[in-house]
TrEMBL record:
Gene3D superfamilies: Cullin Repeats, Cullin, Chain C, Domain 2, Winged helix-like DNA-binding domain superfamily/Winged helix DNA-binding domain. SUPFAM superfamilies: Cullin homology domain (SSF75632), Cullin repeat-like (SSF74788), Winged helix' DNA-binding domain (SSF46785). The keyword DNA damage applies. It holds the Pfam family Cullin. GO terms for molecular function: ubiquitin protein ligase binding. PROSITE patterns: CULLIN_1, CULLIN_2. The keyword Phosphoprotein applies. Residues 1-35 are annotated as: Disordered. Pathway: Protein modification; protein ubiquitination. It comes from Denticeps clupeoides. This is Cullin-4A.
């Protein structure tokens, strides 16, 4: 009997589901159950139907409780379908059949009323937290019995009424609560009331569970017992304006205290806010006011702290505030509040002050390379709508401003390139580490560099070429080969930003010529590596002449091997070991021819070489260039013999002192034929530098017309071979000016060629379209006025003509 009741509690008895008797005889005679087994099942079910618990027994059918037998069916696997919906075992079908064909028990006359009184007493005991007189299983069975006899609507209505009366009685403790007492005590009382109500509702539902799972479940318009409890608490307690206002005020007060650094009872707030969420009044009663208060608090805090604190400190404060608010959401606020809450904090602490933060602190953060704060700045601004575009704009302006100072200050030209490289490294580091490798920021940085580096035309290109020269010269011990390669890679990054690459080419070619001809190149591999980088960046046309210079040097080595073999067969060998570099004029920088008076031995040797070379290469013309010639002289001092590595001009001056003791500037000039400016530089290097092989009288740093020079026999030096020809590697003002002028002259030729090329193809073109085409073809910056001058020049030279009716129209002249 107990086994059957347990099943009935979870699966509603079959006789309540079936409205008409089952007539299918197959249920009474399953294939695997005997007729005797069917009789046993009927007898068992009959004894269950006559069991007590308020059900009237029919006379003559009573039997002892203990007389019922428990039916056990082993290894029964068959299943059958009863009706349309329920799949049941064959054994259950027997039970249903037996119950349906039996007599339905009748309720006692006062059973419903008496049972409700018992249930009401139990509910009252639960609500008053006293002991329940009846067994919970008995109460559950009573509810089940009432529901089985169509009493469910009345039972549900009475239960609701009892619960409502109890909840209505609870409101008085809050309305009568003294306003003078602190809000925390009020919140604790409210929480206690809510917790009690939840506990009571759960216990009441456990007794009326059968009602909840049958009658309420079948009526979709009726709330469940739990939902009824929530509805009653919301209607009669929380929806009371005074109670709700005081509750929300108390919660907001506790949150404000926590924001001010005080410790509060988070579990209390979690419970109360969970109550509001369960009662579905969280958004209307609490969240709206909470967000308004949050907005007001952080608006005032943002205004105050922006004035009182510096930017790094302010950023850390904002980050801390955001972490605190996120922690509140995790600890006691509803999850739905997170997005509007964080948005409010970000708007008031960041969104309203973005421009002020960047104007006040971005430059300092970048100047001091504050990586941590810059990372935090980027992370915070990325959360605010429009934050990153504002940061991007200020970042771009900072680069232009700082870089403009580097490029636009002539006093800093000496360190310009190194400063640019350091600045680029610094900005790359910021973009990579702080700005999360954001492509937009990296592109903005490139645009800013390109903008400021071309604000001062030509000079950055010239200085970059000289910087490369300083790194590729012999004697540069600052870097290993790997470090030198990295430096060249960085230089190429800066080189890409330059518009006037022809200026770089001119100065690079001039310096490369000196390194190759004077033998001052640190490494041929490094030279060719740089050449490869330039070729990759600018194309083969850009480096064709530079590559030709290297070819000339290789060919010269082969020619000199042949010349030495040729000299060995001469009957009158020379004491001078002559080395000649044969340079193709189109590849190398142009040098001003200078006729100097060479010693007869050198002149004779030149003629021998000329005969040798022209004998092998007929139709060629040799033009001697003494400017970059150099020699090694053997000299005898009181200390002993030394070797002096000197330029050709220094050689001619020193050889004079084999013929005399003292010479004036004028005497040296007439004897050597060296140009005056070059002569003064040469004498200064011999008499006023570190290695003074000549003495100047009177002493001084500059060479004047009346100065006299004497060989310094007392000269001392720790080295045997002494280099005095560094003067050849130094650039003179005249060289710089001539190189720049040569670039401008080449540009004019390129403009003329481009104009003629375009007009020859188009035949007729307007001025504006011609200028537009020129800008597309020319690879260097040019002003509209310069283009107009070249067009006028071509018109004067009859390459093109103006249209007679429209002066802005040009025609090509074939």
């Amino acid at each position: 009997s107990s086994a059957f009741r347990g099943e009935a509690a979870t699966n509603r008895p079959a006789w309540r589901r079936t409205r008409r008797p089952v007539t299918d005889q197959r249920l009474a005679r399953p294939r695997d159950v005997s007729a005797r087994m069917a009789d046993d099942i009927r007898a068992n079910v009959k004894s269950l139907a006559e069991h007590s618990n308020g059900v009237t027994r029919t006379p003559g059918t009573a039997s002892k409780t203990g007389a019922s037998r428990k039916l056990v069916i082993k290894n029964f696997k068959g299943e059958k379908t009863c009706g349309r919906r329920h799949r049941i075992t064959a054994a259950h079908c027997y039970i249903m059949h037996a119950l349906i064909i039996g007599d339905r028990p009748k309720l006692a006359d006062n059973y419903t009323e008496d049972t409700w009184l018992k249930l009401r007493d139990a509910v009252g005991a639960i609500q008053n937290s006293t002991s329940i007189k009846y067994n919970l299983e008995e109460l559950y069975q009573a509810v089940e019995n009432l529901c089985s006899y169509k009493v469910s609507p009345m039972l549900y209505k009475q239960l609701r009424q009892v619960c409502e009366e109890h909840v209505q009685a609870q409101i008085h403790q809050f309305r009568e609560y003294p306003s003078s007492l602190d809000s925390l005590s009020f919140l604790k009382r409210m929480n206690r009331c809510w917790q009690d109500h939840c506990r009571q509702t759960i216990m009441i539902r456990s007794i009326f569970l059968f009602l909840d799972r049958t009658y309420v479940l079948q009526n979709s318009l009726l709330p469940s017992i739990w939902d009824t409890g929530l509805e009653l608490f919301r209607t009669h307690i929380v929806s009371d304006s005074a109670v709700q206002s005081r509750t929300v005020d108390g919660i907001l007060e506790q949150i404000e205290r926590e924001r001010n650094g005080e410790t509060i009872d988070r579990s209390l707030l979690r419970s109360l806010l969970g109550m509001l969420a369960d009662l579905q009044v969280y958004k209307d009663s609490f969240e709206q006011r909470f967000l308004v208060e949050t907005n007001r608090l952080y608006a005032a805090e943002g205004q105050r702290l922006m004035q009182d604190r510096d930017v790094p400190e302010y950023l850390h404060h904002v980050s801390r505030r955001l972490d605190e608010e996120n922690d509140r959401v995790i600890s006691y606020l509803d999850q739905s509040t997170q997005k509007p809450l964080i948005s409010t904090v970000e708007k008031q602490l960041l969104g309203e002050h973005m421009a002020a933060i960047l104007q006040k602190g971005l430059s300092n953060l970048l100047d001091e390379n504050r990586v941590t704060e810059l990372t935090l700045l980027y992370q915070l601004f990325s959360k605010v709508k429009g934050g990153l575009p504002v940061l991007l704009q200020h970042w771009r302006e900072y680069i232009k401003s700082f870089g403009g100072e580097i490029v636009g200050t002539p006093e800093k030209d000496k360190d310009m390139v190194q400063d640019l490289l350091d600045f680029k490294d610094k900005m790359d580091n910021v973009a990579q580490r702080c700005f999360n490798r954001n492509e937009t920021f990296i592109n903005a940085m490139k645009e800013a560099f390109e903008s400021f580096i071309n604000k001062r035309p030509n000079k950055p290109a010239e200085l970059i070429a000289k910087y490369v020269d300083s790194k590729l010269r012999a004697g540069n011990k600052e870097a290993t080969e790997e470090e030198l390669e990295r430096i060249l890679d960085k230089i190429m990054i800066i080189f890409r930003f330059i518009h006037g690459k022809d200026v770089f080419e001119a100065f690079y070619k001039k310096d490369l010529a000196k390194r190759l001809l004077v033998g001052k190149s640190a490494s041929v591999d490094a030279e060719k590596s740089m050449l490869s980088k330039l070729k990759h960046e600018c194309g083969a046309a850009f480096t064709s002449k530079l590559e030709g210079m290297f070819k000339d040097m290789e060919l010269s080595k082969d020619i000199m091997i042949q010349f030495k073999q040729y000299m060995q067969n001469q009957s009158d060998p020379s004491n001078i070991d002559l080395t000649v570099n044969i340079l193709t004029m189109g590849y190398w920088p142009s040098y001003t021819p200078m006729d100097v008076h060479l010693p007869s031995e050198m002149v004779k040797l030149q003629e021998v070489f000329k005969t040798f070379y022209l004998g092998k290469h007929s139709g060629r013309k040799l033009q001697w260039q003494p400017t970059l010639g150099h020699a090694v002289l053997k000299a005898e001092f009181k200390e002993g013999k030394k070797e002096l590595q000197v330029s050709l001009f220094q050689t001619l001056v020193l050889l004079m002192f084999n013929e005399g003791e003292e010479f004036t500037v004028e005497e040296i000039r007439s004897a050597t034929g060296i140009e005056e400016g070059e002569l003064r530089r040469t004498l200064q290097s011999l008499a006023c530098g570190k290695a003074r092989v000549l003495n100047k009288n009177p002493r001084g740093k500059d060479v004047e017309d009346g100065d006299r020079f004497v060989f310094n026999g007392d000269f001392k030096h720790k080295l045997f071979r002494i280099k005095i020809n560094q003067i050849q590697m130094k650039e003179t003002v005249e060289e710089q000016v001539s190189t720049t002028e040569r670039v401008f002259q080449d540009r004019q030729y390129q403009i003329d060629a481009a104009v003629v090329r375009i007009m020859k193809m188009r035949k007729t073109l307007s001025h504006n379209l011609l200028v537009s085409e020129l800008y597309n073809q020319l690879k260097f910056p040019v002003k509209p006025g310069d283009l107009k001058k070249r067009i006028e020049s071509l018109i004067d030279r009859d390459y093109m003509e103006r249209d007679k009716e429209s002066p802005n129209q040009y025609h090509y002249v074939a």
